[in-house]
Amino acid sequence: MIRIRRSNEIQCQNQYILFRKSVKDNFPVTGGRVIRLPQYIGNPGSIPLVYKVLVYPEEPAGARMIITIFRSRLRPEHEHEYHEWADRMEALARAMPGFVSIKTFYARDGERVSIVEFESKEAHEAWRKHPEHMEAQRLGREKFYSEFKIQVLDNPRGYEFRAE
Questions:
Q1: Sequence-ordered list of residues with C-beta below 8 angstroms from that of 71, at least 6 positions apart, any chain
Q2: Contacts of 33 (CB under 8 A, 6+ apart)
Q3: What pLDDT is recorded for position 3?
Q4: Domain match, 150 and 71 both
Q5: Which domain covers residue 31, as residue numbers?
Q6: pLDDT at 61
Q7: Is the domain of 73 the same as that of 118?
Q8: Same domain, 79 and 141
């Protein structure tokens, strides 16, 4: 199926398509992600007459992984109570639909980094707005943390290597 998202951008299943500018009015406007690369005929400074298009298919709804990076430092006077809550929150997160993983790392200077993955934005939002998690967030601000920083990554690119 061929689609056009904007003028001069034709979509077809992960293919390059060459077309002239005049073709743009012959297709309906719909979604998808397209990279348009001009192909010059004549001088590189001239107006491109033909475009080479790399097309990515549209993603199914909810197919975007969400990764949260949570960096924090604990207040030492509440560390025991914090660990009780942290164990409860990890068990709760693992039971949530769409949960993928959690890993926590500790630095020598006292900083902690947790990386939490959910399979979709909807699963992440359900976790973020869970009543017990919201109570844990409130306690974190009031008692447990001297500082924290949260970064949420929506549909990050990933690469992987494993030696055999």
A1: 111, 112, 113, 148, 149, 150, 151
A2: 55, 56, 58
A3: 47
A4: yes
A5: 3-56
A6: 53
A7: yes
A8: yes
Mean pLDDT of the residues in the chain: 75
Q: Domain containing 150 — which CATH number?
A: 3.30.70.100
Q: Which of 72, 76, 69 is nearest to 147 (CA)?
A: 72
Going by C-beta distance under 8 Å and a sequence separation of 6 or more, which residues neighbour residue 160?
none
Distance CA 27, CA 25 (A): 6
d(CA 139, CA 39): 58
Between CA 67 and CA 83 the distance in angstroms is: 22
pLDDT of residue 8: 44
Closest CA to 101 of 127, 134, 80, 82: 127
Is 50 exceeded by the pLDDT of residue 31?
no
Q: Identify whether residues 29 and 79 lie together within a single domain.
A: no
pLDDT at 160 over 70: yes
Check residue 64 and give its pLDDT.
Answer: 77
Domain-located, residue 149: yes
- Work out how many domains the chain is built from and give that number: 2
Identify the bridge partners of residue 36 per DSSP, sorted by sequence position: 53
**3 state SS of 34:** strand
